[in-house]
Amino acid sequence: PADEVDRERAVQREVVKNEGKPENLWEKIIDGRMKKWFQEKTLLQQPFVKDPDKTIGQLVQDVAAKTGENIVVRRFSRFALGE
Hints:
The protein has about 80 residues and is mainly alpha-helical. It contains 3 helices and 2 strands; from the N terminus they run ααββα. The chain has helices at about 1-20, 25-40, 55-65, and strands at about 45-50, 50-55.
């Protein structure tokens, strides 16, 4: 959701500000951190468990190319250990 993205961007802005980084580099640093955050939060950007060099999105594209079918992720389950 957009409000969650805005909230995370504000948090990252405060972190960068408190780290004493030059102001002219703030946006680039924040953009890099947001990109990493998106990779952790969005399913299609996460690494595939069995092959960490490949993302879920790449896996979906590979399977679609092999089968010749249009593949869409309709649902998934999230498992967490130690929480």
